[in-house]
Amino acid sequence: MKKIALIFPGQGAQTVGMGKDFYDERPESREVFETADSILGFSLSKVVFEGPEEKLRETLYTQPAVFAASAAMLEAFKKSAAESGVTLNPAFAAGHSLGEYTALYCAGAFGLKTALKLVKSRAGFIQDASVKKSGTMAALLGLDEAKTAEVCAASGAEAVNFNSPGQIVIAGDSDAVARAMILAKEKGALKVVGLNVSGAFHSSLMKDAAVKMSAVLADGTVSDTAFPVIMNVDAAAESSAVAIRQKLVSQIDHPVLWEKTVRAMLAAGVELFIEIGPGKVLSGLIKRIDRKAAVINIGAVTDIPAAVESLR
Question: Which pLDDT band holds residue 1 (cuts at 50, 70, 90)?
C-alpha cells in the first residue's frame, strides 16, 4: 500500500470564502462549520464566507477559521473515500503551526468540539501575548541557517520557521526585526520580506501564551493517536498523548521545523503528500525541499475525486 501523509496549513493560508463550496455541497462539511459556530459562540462561518478580510486576518478569527475549513475538507475527503470503497490509512499527519491541531484531530488525538475549544484558547492566548509584548516577523529568502543565526545573534531577533532550504522566518520586537532585515541583506539574502502579522509567533515573546496553554492542555483532553503525527517542535513522530501535550505547549514559543518535518516523512518512505485546507503553501514548500516529491491538494470540492483516486 502507498505510504501517504496528510498535511494541514496554518495561519496565513486563509482567504475569504474558503470552504464555501464544501459547506454548500457536503453535509459532513457543513456540520463542521455549524459545530464551530456553536462552540465558539459567534458565527465563524459568516466571517469565513463573507469577511471582511481584515477581520479574518485577526488571530482570534484566523486560527479557528483555518482549522474549521481544513477539518471540513478532511471530513468530505474521508466520506468520499469510504463511499468509493477506498481505505484512507495515512502513515503520518503533520501541520504547520496551527495546522498541527488539524493533523492531531485527523489522527484522533481529540474530537471536533475539543479541537475547536483548544484552538479558540490558543488563538486568544496568542492574541493576548501579542498585545502584551508586541512584535513582528519577516521572511529571509536565500540565506542559510548559519548566516541566519549570525543575523539573529547580532540583532536580537529569533529564527522561528525553518520552512524550506533558503526560506527562514524570523520574529521579535519591531526594532530587532528591522535590524535583522538590514543585516540579512548585508549577509547576502536574496530577498527580505516583512510579514503582515499581529505578533512575533513562535518566539520567546509568546512565553505567556505557552504557559496558559499548558494549563488548558493539562486536563486530559488529548488522547493517543491512531497513527503518528510529526510534531513541529522537533520533527519527531508522536502517538503518545503525554508527549503530544508537552509538544503542543512548546510549539507556541519555539520554532516550527517544517523542513525537518517533511524530510522525516520522506525518510520514512512517504510516497504522496496530500495537503488538505486552503491554499497551496505547504505543497510549494515540499517541492522546494524535494522536487521529486508527489503532492496533491484538496482545497475545493472538485479536488476530491482525484485525491480519492490517488489512494488506490
Answer: confident
Q: Are 225 and 111 in contact (CB under 8 A)?
A: no
Q: What are the tens digits of pLDDT across the range 64-112? A: 999 999 999 999 999 999 999 998 999 999 999 999 999 999 999 999 9
Number of Cα atoms under 13 Å in the Cβ half of residue 159: 24
CA distance 23 to 299: 12
User: Do 24 and 72 belong together in one domain?
Assistant: yes
The answer to whether residues 111 and 170 belong to one domain is no
pLDDT tier at 150, thresholds 50, 70, 90: very high
DSSP for 13-52 reads ---TTTTHHHHHH-HHHHHHHHHHHHHHTS-HHHHHHH--
Show the domain range for 52: 4-131+203-310
- Active site residues per annotation: 97, 202
